[in-house]
Amino acid sequence: MTPEALFEKAKKANAIPENAKLQSAFQFGVDPDELADLVLSGIKTATTSALDLYRDDEPLPQTGAYDVVLDNQNQAVCVIKNDRVVATKYLDVDAKHAYLEGEGDRSLAYWRRVHHAFFVEAYQSEGHVFDEQNANMLLENFHVVYPTR
């Protein structure tokens, strides 16, 4: 199902307001299916993105906005709503946020290990160098408002 079709289905089911707008549709990380399953199960309720890598024409995530989570085939898995969006430095991400991301053993040490590798590659692919001392992040907390299963 496309993100737009799922979003309209969620509106018709009264899971979201009729006037709600779709902010974005995206896959999580390097294993979209596994991470989407964590979202659907309620284990993953947070994510982190690199504020430094957003383009000028790309809208930033907003509190109260709706997104569609995609699987590795770009099929819609669920609609989520952002409960909180906060900008912070990479090194200021805390253990609570790491836990809410729901990955691995949910520890800050695990979060730092996998996210460091992820951001090194992401920054490099955009022609930048990841500097964990100065990297700006967006932390999002969300909940599922309409699952496909």
Structure description:
- The mean pLDDT is 96.
- The protein has helices spanning 3-12, 32-40, 95-101, 108-125; strands at 22-26, 46-50, 66-70, 76-89, 136-147.
- The chain has a five-stranded mixed β-sheet with strand order 1-3-4-5-2.
- Helix 3 crosses helix 4.
- The protein is of the alpha+beta class and 149 residues long.
- Name the helicity range: 25-40%
Order of helices and strands: HEHEEEHHE
Tally of helical segments: 4
Mean pLDDT level: 96
Dominant shape? globular
Largest sheet: 5 strands, mixed
- What is the chains' assembly state? single chain
InterPro entries: ASCH_domain, DUF984, PUA-like_sf
Protein name: ASCH domain-containing protein
Pfam families: ASCH (PF04266)
Layout of helices and strands, plus pairs?
Elements (H helix, E strand, L loop, with lengths): L2 H10 L9 E5 L5 H9 L5 E5 L15 E5 L5 E14 L5 H7 L6 H18 L10 E12 L2
Parallel strand pairs: 1-3
Antiparallel strand pairs: 2-5, 3-4, 4-5
Protein name: ASCH domain-containing protein
InterPro entries: ASCH_domain, DUF984, PUA-like_sf
Features:
five-stranded mixed beta sheet, 30% helix, 5 strands, PUA-like_sf, DUF984, alpha+beta, 149 residues, ASCH domain-containing protein, ASCH_domain
Précis, in short:
The chain has 149 residues and is α+β, with helices and mostly antiparallel strands. Helix content is 30%, strand content 28%. A five-stranded mixed sheet has the order 1-3-4-5-2.
